Amino acid sequence: MAKKGYWMAMVDVRDPEIYKQYIEANAVAFAKYGARFAVRAGRHESPEGPTGNRHVLVEFESYEKALQCYNSPEYRQALKFRLAASTGHFVIVEGA
Question: What structural domains and CATH numbers belong to the chain?
Answer without folding.
Answer: 4-95 (3.30.70.100)
